[in-house]
Automatic annotation (TrEMBL):
Keywords: Carboxypeptidase, Glycosyltransferase, Hydrolase, Membrane, Multifunctional enzyme, Protease, Transferase, Transmembrane, Transmembrane helix. CDD domains: PASTA_pknB. PANTHER family: BINDING PROTEIN TRANSPEPTIDASE, PUTATIVE-RELATED, PEPTIDOGLYCAN GLYCOSYLTRANSFERASE. It comes from Micromonospora pattaloongensis. This is Membrane carboxypeptidase (Penicillin-binding protein). One of its GO terms (biological process) is peptidoglycan biosynthetic process. SUPFAM superfamilies: beta-lactamase/transpeptidase-like (SSF56601), Lysozyme-like (SSF53955). PROSITE patterns: PASTA.
Length: 817
């Protein structure tokens, strides 16, 4: 067999270019009957011998003892024919970088390994030259194995001098690739085992990969894969960690230092005293290699060698606890939990976390830094972080579901059990046991819910769901109900203060006795009249109200509440639901009202607006997930009534009464919303929305929902509407669309004039006109005779089928059935 037919013998006689070898082997191939290429049987034996020689030579050079034992011969007998068609490598883990909505401000990084792949074009030429000079000077001349290097190693290793290796840069890349492709610990150990078998396999695979990749492709992959110490992998991470520079900005001395680390990252550690000395010597040695290869001049080498090490050694942030500023941590945690819930990133949460920490994604989140800063500022100035009560605010964009801010009066951090800084739980039994509360430090998802956080009661903000259900069932906004001071409902099973006297019936009352009287939806929603909405819920069915809440994003995390919501029959008995007794979160409440601002289009809350994989491909999982859950006109009508509580004007001029009239004046945009209070003021809530942003806040005690402390609207309300005002500053005002008149007024019917008629006659006239008739049980001054009707409310025109209240004259009237 001549030298020209054996790549190994060619390599021993001259520098190997890789071209003649590929051509030599390729020329021996022929196509069999199945269409596959194979090596002709006539030429098989010489090639087997050639493969054997390759194995023996490599093992002899790198591991002389192995060659003597015969192991190299055994391994070398595996010919080139048995090599894989191509080297298949699993992509090495890369850090995922997460940005705020501007796409430029880093929010967080997630990484098992500090690595980020970059194209070779983004690496300074001097860095490329330095790694070649340090690791494989013949890189651009050999075909994967360096014959001269093998010869040098053979001579050195058999002369008793320091043992040299013969691994080329390509062989090193093969070894790293096999390591990262390993799926179990044994395979990882085998990939780096110091044996001749491994060396031979690397040599064979190196030759194969040189046929399939260009030199620059190999170098790029090597630079992105190599470990550079201190938890950094790849040239991007190394240049950032050691010098806070992009790889394209590295200078001569910096490139030489980084190139010198690959040989032994633990030994050449510039962050330790001994390692710094070794690193300096190693860097200067690399500079000398660069000079010898002509990469730099003698003068440049001398200047670089005279310089001292200026290493930063700053690890990039990793995970949500490292988010800066700290209050971004709550949003970061929301994003993290969202990611773990996405099937697009794996079957199990473990798989999804691995993808997050190793997939090299570029994520642009929905976090708006300006809105977030306003939310945190308005929260922090009203309630200190060390307060047991939590003031929690969320902002979301109507029509997209993009979460723009999440803030709380808490430090996003873990409390150290060995040296706790958190106060004792506000819950007395827990406090007596020494159990700490979640203030001022917590990583619990208190703003968004999840885990053990079911949420908090949001009070009368839930009345919007009853209003929507009524509109869907042909009750227009002008539908009237006589709202008494205390209403004896049809619901049973009540106890304590919620029960009627000497009864188990549910008897809600208003916050103020002055709220009693005839109301329509505009006035009842504006003044938050409980005794209007409970009977309205009776008319439309509580199960329908619960269904509306679910369609607007209320999730019912508490098991007992979920059981009620899932059973329509049981839900129909949920009398207090309209008053907001179900646990929810600021984010859910904000999104419910945002859905109305988007004309009934519900969007799943999302923390992302763009996700690209490591190759730059845009992933559809970031697209808004929206669906029309409420009729557009119904949504517009409900929102028209919701303008009343916050001091705005209904499109029909019907607002009278407001629980927080300052909102419209401060926000200076058309706005809708609602306040909410629960029994004994255990929570206080508010929501306000414009066409482009909804903000909600809840003041509660996450550690003790049954707190005896009274939560104040003076704290939560301004935190909400001033956050909204700051976020809306500079934006063009957008008015809410006017709803259809039929949803506002329905079919209007004239109320018969029954003035001075007897109660019986007046009742007959009104019921004959289709109205529900109620008699006011208190005397009314009038010029009519005693015990006759002084007038009605409403009078003139009103909704067909609505309630008309007759007022009776005279002190002797005792009431009529």
């Amino acid at each position: 067999m001549s030298s020209r037919n054996c790549p190994w013998r060619v390599a021993l006689s001259r520098d190997v270019t890789g071209v003649s070898d590929a051509e030599t082997i390729s020329s021996r191939k022929q196509t069999n009957s199945s269409g596959k290429q194979t090596i002709s049987s006539r030429k098989r034996s010489p090639l087997l011998v050639c493969g054997l020689l390759a194995g023996v030579a490599v093992a002899a050079a790198a591991f002389p003892a192995v060659a003597v034992s015969g192991l190299a011969v055994k391994a070398g007998a595996e010919t080139f024919e048995g090599l894989p068609g191509e080297l298949t490598t699993k992509q090495a883990p890369q850090a995922t970088e997460v940005y705020t909505s501007d796409g430029e401000t880093l929010l967080a990084r997630f990484a098992d390994e500090n690595r980020r792949d970059v194209p070779l074009a983004d690496v300074a030429p001097i860095m490329r030259q330095a790694i070649v000079a340090a690791e494989d000077r013949a890189f651009y001349r050999h075909n994967g194995i360096d014959a001269k290097g093998i010869a040098r190693a053979f001579v050195a290793n058999n002369s008793g001098s320091l043992q040299q290796g013969a691994s080329t840069l390509t062989m090193q890349f093969v070894r790293m690739s096999i390591t990262y492709a390993a799926t179990d610990p044994a395979a990882i150990v085998a990939a780096s085992e110091d044996t001749g078998v491994r060396k031979i396999r690397e040599a064979r695979l190196a030759i194969q990969i040189e046929k399939r990749l260009s030199k620059d492709e190999i170098l790029e992959r090597y630079l992105n894969l190599a470990p550079f110490g201190n938890g950094t992998y790849g040239i991007y991470a190394a240049s950032q960690f050691y010098f806070r520079k992009q790889p394209h900005a590295l200078g001569i001395d910096e490139a030489a230092m980084i190139a010198g680390l690959v040989k032994s990252p633990s030994e050449f550690n510039p962050l330790t005293e001994d390692g710094a000395r070794a690193t300096l010597q190693r860097r200067n040695w690399v500079l000398e290699q660069m000079r010898e290869t002509g990469v730099i001049t003698l003068e440049e080498a001398a200047a670089a060698q005279a310089s001292t090490l200026h290493v930063r050694g700053e690890a990039p942030p990793n995970g949500c606890l490292a988010a800066r500023p700290n209050h971004w941590g709550f949003f970061c945690d929301y994003f993290y939990r969202w990611w773990l819930a996405q099937p697009a990133f794996g079957i199990t949460t473990y798989d999804r976390e691995r993808r997050l920490k190793g997939g090299g994604y570029r994520v642009v989140t929905t976090l708006d830094a300006r809105t977030q800063a306003a939310a945190r500022r308005n929260v922090h100035t009203r309630l200190r972080d060390a307060d047991p009560a939590a003031l929690m605010v969320a902002a979301i964009e109507p029509g997209t579901g993009r979460v723009r801010a999440l803030a709380a009066n808490r430090t996003f951090a873990l409390d150290n059990p060995a040296a706790p800084r958190n106060g004792l739980s506000a819950n007395p039994p827990k406090a007596r046991k020494g159990i700490r509360g979640s203030y001022p430090r917590t990583t619990n998802p208190i703003v968004t819910g999840g885990g053990d956080i079911a949420g908090y009661q949001a009070g009368s903000t839930f009345k919007i769901f009853t209003l929507i259900a009524a509109l869907q069932n042909a009750y227009p906004l002008d539908y009237t109900i006589n709202a008494p001071r205390i209403y004896q409902s049809k619901y049973t099973g009540a106890s304590g203060a919620a029960a009627c006297p000497h009864s188990r019936r549910y008897c809600p009352r208003n916050a103020d006795d002055g709220m009693a009287g005839v109301h329509n939806a505009w006035t009842a929603f504006g003044s938050s009249v409980n005794t209007y909405f409970v009977p309205l819920q009776e008319r439309v069915g509580a199960a329908n109200v619960v269904d509306v809440a679910r369609r607007l994003g209320i999730t019912f995390r508490a098991p007992k509440e979920a059981a009620l919501a899932d059973d329509p029959q049981a839900a129909n008995g949920w009398g207090a639901f309209t008053l907001g007794v179900s646990a929810t979160t600021p984010l859910e409440v904000a999104n419910a009202y945002a859905t109305l601002a988007a004309d009934g289009r519900f969007c799943q809350p999302t923390p992302v607006q763009e996700i690209r994989d490591s190759r730059g491909a845009d992933l559809p999982v970031a697209a808004p997930a929206c669906v029309q859950t409420i009729n557009r006109e119904v949504a517009r009508a409900a929102l028209d009534a919701a303008r009343c509580p916050v001091g705005d004007k209904s499109a029909f001029g019907e607002c009278r009464g407001a629980t927080e009239p300052r909102v419209r004046r401060v926000v200076r945009h058309p706005v809708a919303g609602k306040t909410g209070t629960t029994d004994r003021d255990r929570t206080a809530a508010m929501v306000a929305t414009t066409r482009s942003l909804a903000v909600a806040g809840i003041l509660a005690d996450p550690d003790w929902p049954e707190t005896t402390r009274k939560m104040s609207h003076r704290i939560v309300n301004p935190a909400v509407y001033r956050t909204l005002a700051a976020a809306m500053a500079g934006r063009r005002p957008q008015d809410f669309p006017r709803p259809e008149p039929r949803l506002a007024y329905g079919d209007q019917v004239a109320v018969p004039d029954v003035t001075c008629k007897s109660v019986a006659e007046a009742t007959a006239l009104l019921t004959g006109a289709g109205f529900q008739v109620e008699v006011e049980a208190r005397p009314v001054p009038s010029g009519c005779p005693a015990n006759t009707v002084a007038g009605t409310e409403p009078s003139g025109w009103t909704v067909a089928g609505g309630v008309v209240v007759m007022r009776v004259v005279g002190p002797t009237y005792g009431g009529y059935p």
